[in-house]
Amino acid sequence: MRRELPTPFDAQPRYRVTVEDRFWRWIYVPVIDLANYLARLVSLMQQGRISVYLLYSFLTLVTTLLVVMR
Questions:
Q1: Does pTM surpass 0.70?
Q2: Which of 12, 14, 56, 67 stands 20 to 30 A from 49 (CA)?
Q3: What is the DSSP letter of 28?
Q4: Rounded Cα gap, residues 2 and 31, in angstroms
């Protein structure tokens, strides 16, 4: 928190208080950036042809089955 307080001798006193969240830049911003990056990747995948989309779905299904069988 930053404070700017006037002195008793100021003709036009101005008060200013700024409050910032310390964890916002360190925790929330990287999570938001990661979510935006993943959303861009998914949107690129969904803009393709239907055959490519079906290939992604098939590979996901095969990978899931292989993981579950182990």
A1: no
A2: 67
A3: I
A4: 26
